[in-house]
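Late entry, written up from scratch paper. The run itself happened at the end of the previous shift, but nothing got recorded in the book at the time, so transcribing now.
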Amino acid sequence: MKAVIQRVAHASVVVDGSVVGSCGRGFLLLLGVAEGDTELDAELLCRKIVNLRIFPDEAGKMNRSIKDIDGELLVISQFTLMANYRHGNRPDFLASARPEEAERLYEYFKSLAAKEVKRVESGIFGAHMEVSLLNDGPVTIVMDSDVLKKK
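Output as recorded:
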C-alpha cells in the first residue's frame, strides 16, 4: 500500500460538479492499494500517518501530528500510485489490487483513520475526481507499507 501525504491548509474533491469531500488544515492523502496488500498494510500506514510529526510547534519546528493539532484528513483512492513505468512510455497498473479488494482495504483504512482523526472525508472510489488543495509548506511525503514491514 502506498500513500502520498500532503500537508494542506485545505483541500476538496469534486465528482460530477459537486463537492463530495473536503478538509481544513491537515492532510490530503492519496492512497493506492497493491495486489497482495492486507489489513496489516492499512494498519501500519494509518498508525504512521496519524502520528507523523510534520506540523509546526510554537517554535516553528515540525513537531506535531495531525492528532496534536486536531487536523482533518481527506483520503482519495489512487490506483495510479502502483504504476509500472520501467518499459516504454505508457505505464501499466498491473501491480494494483483488483477493484473489489482495493475498495475494501481503502474503506478499512478510512475506518481506522476515523478512530484517530476528528474529521475524515473522502472521494468516491473509482470515480473521476477533481482534487484541489492549498499545499502548506509545501510538505509532501511518500510512504510504502512494505518499508514499514522491514523494521
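The chain has one domain: 2-149.
(Scratch paper discarded after transcription.)
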